[in-house]
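Bit of a strange request maybe. I'm writing a small parser for C-alpha cell strings and I need a real example to test against, not something I typed by hand. Could someone generate the C-alpha cells for this chain?
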Amino acid sequence: MNETNARGVRQRSVETVVPVYNEAHVLAGSIGRLHAYPEASFPFPFRITVADNASTDATWQAATDLTLRLPHVHAVHLDAKGRGRALKHVWSRSTADVVAYMDVGLSTGLGRF
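Reply from user aminoacidic:
Good idea to test on real output. This should exercise your parser:
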C-alpha cells in the first residue's frame, strides 16, 4: 500500500475501516460514495477496508463484490460481532501511516475525511 512518488519519495498512506453488520442493503451506495471522495481529492495512496462483523445477511457477498469493482476497496470477514474487534483486527495488520474509522452511514461527513 505504501508507494513512492516520481522522485522516489515514499508517500504517506491512509486506511479507513468501515465495520459492518447486516448492512447489505446500504453497503454498495455508502462505499461507492466513500471511495469516490479520496479517489478525486487525495494526493496519496488510500485503502478502504470493509470489516464484516459476522453478518447473517448478504453483507459479505456485497463486500466482496465491491472489491472487484473498486480498486482501493478490500474486505475482511470476522466470525464474531464487535466494532472494536473489527477495528483492532484491521488496524493491527495495516501498513498505512494513518488509520481511520467511518461508519457505513457516513454520518461523520466526507468533508471531515
